[in-house]
Amino acid sequence: MGRMQLVELIEQAVAGLGYELVDFETSPRARLLRVFIDRLPEKGKVDIDDCTTVSNHLSRLFVVENVDYDRLEVSSPGLDRPLKKAADWLRFAGHDVQIKLRVPIGNQRNFAGSIVGMRGDAATIVVEGEEREFPLEGIEKARLVPKF
Questions:
Q1: 22, 35, 44, 47: most buried by Cβ count inside 10 Å?
Q2: What is the b/e burial string over 110-137, where b = at least 16 CB atoms within 10 angstroms of the residue's CB?
Q3: Please, are residues 142 and 97 in contact by the beta-carbon 8 Å criterion?
Q4: 80 lies in a domain?
Q5: 63: number of Cβ within 10 Å
Q6: Which of 48, 75, 102 is the last residue of a domain?
Q7: Which long-range contacts (CB under 8 A, 24 or more apart) does 110-118 make?
């Protein structure tokens, strides 16, 4: 099973349980599968019971689907949650974010600011008082900046 098929399988299973797949990582040769889940917006934070529920479900599913792996880890995305989809940018409007671009603008690849939302397929962020748009396909990494 290819990586994309595996991601789809996990995404469907997680969604079926009422969660959202935030991120998926594998170790070399896919011996470790790391799944990051979140509750749907307005449903609170992920706790250990949520992770156990999803882990048990995925373990059974992987047996049925003959997914070969050694270890499965299911956890919450943490306070510095990665932003992957357009829906994430809308959901976390008003939050602070750090992004790293695939290709620099001028000589800068890293930007930080406050999320405004989406315009078309570009994330809109206030950077140093100025609203700027960054096309999602040009963003290599984006993470929320936790407030303490």
A1: 35
A2: ebebbbbebeeebbbbeeeeeeeebebe
A3: yes
A4: no
A5: 9
A6: 75
A7: 112/145, 115/89, 117/89, 117/90, 117/93, 118/86, 118/89, 118/90
Q: How buried is residue 29: exposed, middle or buried, by Cβ count under 10 Å (0-12/13-18/19+)?
A: exposed
In a domain, 38, yes or no: yes
Q: Is 117 contained in some domain?
A: yes
Instruction: Read off the pTM.
Output: 0.80
Q: Tell me: the pLDDT tens digits for 87-125?
A: 999 999 999 999 999 999 999 999 999 999 999 999 999
Instruction: Supply the range of the domain harboring residue 61.
Output: 3-75
88 CB burial (10 A radius; 0-12, 13-18, 19+):
buried
- How far apart CA 44 and CA 67 sit, in angstroms, is 31
71 vs 21: CA distance, rounded Å: 18
Q: Which pairing describes strands 32-39 and 71-75: parallel, antiparallel, or unpaired?
A: parallel
| Type of residue at 7 | V
Q: What's at 110, amino acid-wise?
A: N
pLDDT tens-digit map of 38-50: 988 778 888 999 9
